[in-house]
């Protein structure tokens, strides 16, 4: 997962509590399953990485949520580092040993061994607690609870002003200003944008200019690496209840072959228990 924009309104009594639009970028040869209810972890809804066994974004029937992006630092990559996707699935499955069940406590535990992983951003939440927390193992900042607002994460720390993040965060805010509850398909379309940044806007992350340019698009399409799927999520507070709607548009039709343009969709809706 390499670009996430989200709006967080923990004080909402009626209306959208949480809105997210996210792209998962990955090597095309890495096999994965699209979003589904996991058989071995009842109540867990997520895609699944078939190499590492974890996931990049998911949620549960009881209101837990997590998403992860990689931190781009190619010179620091270690082939022997543990898979980062289990940081998401461990939270969602409850396989973490945190008695409080609080998102911030989970991230504080993760941070104790954060250096053993390649770089990542981890967003962890509990919608029933109305708590959303963030941690990056390449940032000097401690794990922190997030205040209300519209945020973005790409392959640097939270709200780093890379062009695609700034643009998509603004477009999400604009969509929410225009409609109380924008259609999930609108949020999906917002993220499937192949526009690349000007060279003078590009960050310097230790890769070639050509690669930097290609990765500056919200929707990435290169011969070996690109956006594999887009996910939109809304959590609605209404009459004292929370309900979740999610839509995933995948470029993998289920056969683990990437097909452009992606049109394989799955939608889900459920009330939080």
UniProtKB/TrEMBL annotation:
InterPro entries: TANGO2. It comes from the Bacteria. Pfam families: TANGO2 (PF05742). PANTHER family: SER/THR-RICH PROTEIN T10 IN DGCR REGION, TRANSPORT AND GOLGI ORGANIZATION PROTEIN 2 HOMOLOG. This is NRDE family protein. It comes from Paraburkholderia largidicola.
């Amino acid at each position: 997962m390499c670009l996430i924009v989200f709006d967080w309104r923990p004080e909402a009594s009626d209306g959208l509590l949480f809105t997210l639009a996210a792209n998962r970028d990955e090597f095309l040869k890495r096999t994965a399953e699209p979003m589904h209810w996991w058989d071995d972890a009842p109540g867990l809804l997520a895609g699944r990485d078939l190499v590492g066994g974890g996931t990049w974004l998911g949620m549960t029937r009881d209101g837990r949520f997590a998403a992860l992006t990689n931190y781009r630092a190619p010179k620091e990559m270690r082939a022997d580092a543990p898979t980062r996707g289990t940081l998401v699935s461990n939270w969602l499955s409850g396989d973490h040993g945190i008695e409080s069940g609080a998102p911030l406590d989970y991230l504080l535990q993760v941070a104790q061994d954060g250096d053993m992983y390649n770089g990542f951003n981890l967003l962890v939440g509990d919608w029933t607690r109305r708590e959303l927390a963030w941690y990056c193992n390449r940032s000097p900042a401690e794990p922190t609870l997030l205040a209300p607002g519209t945020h973005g994460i790409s392959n640097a720390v939270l709200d780093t002003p890379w062009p695609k993040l700034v643009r998509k965060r603004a477009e999400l805010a604009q969509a929410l200003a225009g409609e109380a509850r924008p259609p999930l398909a609108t949020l999906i379309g917002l993220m499937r944008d192949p526009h690349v940044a000007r060279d003078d806007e590009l960050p310097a992350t230790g890769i070639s200019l050509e690669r930097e340019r290609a990765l500056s698009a919200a929707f990435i399409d290169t011969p070996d690496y690109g956006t594999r799927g887009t996910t939109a999520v809304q959590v609605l507070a209404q009459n004292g209840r929370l309900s979740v709607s999610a839509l995933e548009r995948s470029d993998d039709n289920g056969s683990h072959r990437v097909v452009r343009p992606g049109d394989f969709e799955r939608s889900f809706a459920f009330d939080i228990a």
